[in-house]
């Protein structure tokens, strides 16, 4: 399937944004991982990509840190979550990736996107 819709993907470090964007592109979608968690601009996801659809991937502090081999302090984690609040509130699809593998995340997003006509 090919679509002209642009899909933005936001979420904390280690949630799977880049991996999902690659998988969606392989499936014929236009997708961009947005590093919203590093921005002081609350709606960077909207300004940077001007997407038709926003997917928010969530990962817990422990899972994200293990996936990326990071050692966040509580304050760093909370700041990242604060910076993501606007994207979280405006997401068309919210998916917690803690207990999901790469293929499962992609499959759930593809099912959602195929129903979004």
Question: What order do the helices and strands come in, and which of them pair?
Answer:
Elements: E1 6-10, H1 17-26, E2 30-33, H2 44-49, E3 53-58, H3 61-68, H4 74-90, E4 93-96, H5 102-115
Helix pairs in contact: 1-5
What are the salient characteristics of this protein?
117 residues; alpha/beta; Rossmann fold; four-stranded parallel β-sheet; 16% strand
The largest pleated sheet is described as:
4 strands, parallel
Quaternary form: single chain
Our measurement of the CA-to-CA distance between the termini, rounded to an integer number of angstroms, reads: 12 Å
Series of secondary-structure elements, N-terminal to C-terminal: EHEHEHHEH
Which blocks of ≥5 consecutive residues have pLDDT under 50?
Answer: none
The coarse overall form would be globular
In percent terms, what proportion of residues is strand?
15-25%
Number of helices: 5
**Fourth-level CATH superfamily:** P-loop containing nucleotide triphosphate hydrolases
CATH class: Alpha Beta
Summarize the amount of helix as a percent range. 40-55%
Report the CATH architecture.
3-Layer(aba) Sandwich
Class based on secondary structure composition and strand pairing: alpha/beta
CA-based gyration radius:
14 Å
Write up this protein:
This protein starts with 5 loop residues before the first strand and ends with a helix. The chain has five helices and four strands. 47% of the residues lie in helices and 16% in strands. It has helices at residues 17-26, 44-49, 61-68, 74-90, 102-115; strands at 6-10, 30-33, 53-58, 93-96. Helix 1 (17-26) links the parallel strand 1 and strand 2 (30-33). A four-stranded parallel beta sheet has the order 2-1-3-4, sandwiched between helices. The protein is globular, with a radius of gyration of 14 Å. It has a single domain (6-110), classed as 3-Layer(aba) Sandwich (Rossmann fold).
């Amino acid at each position: 399937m090919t679509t002209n819709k642009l899909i933005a993907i936001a979420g904390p470090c280690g949630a799977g944004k880049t991996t999902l964007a690659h998988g969606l592109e392989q499936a014929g979608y236009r997708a961009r991982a947005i590093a919203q968690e590093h921005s002081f601009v609350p709606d960077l996801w909207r300004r940077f990509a001007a997407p038709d659809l926003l997917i928010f991937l969530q990962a817990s502090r422990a899972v994200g840190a293990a996936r990326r081999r990071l050692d966040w302090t509580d304050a760093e984690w909370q700041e990242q979550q604060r910076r993501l609040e606007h994207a979280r509130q405006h997401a068309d699809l919210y998916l917690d990736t803690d207990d999901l593998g790469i293929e499962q995340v992609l499959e759930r997003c593809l099912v959602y996107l195929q129903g979004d006509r």
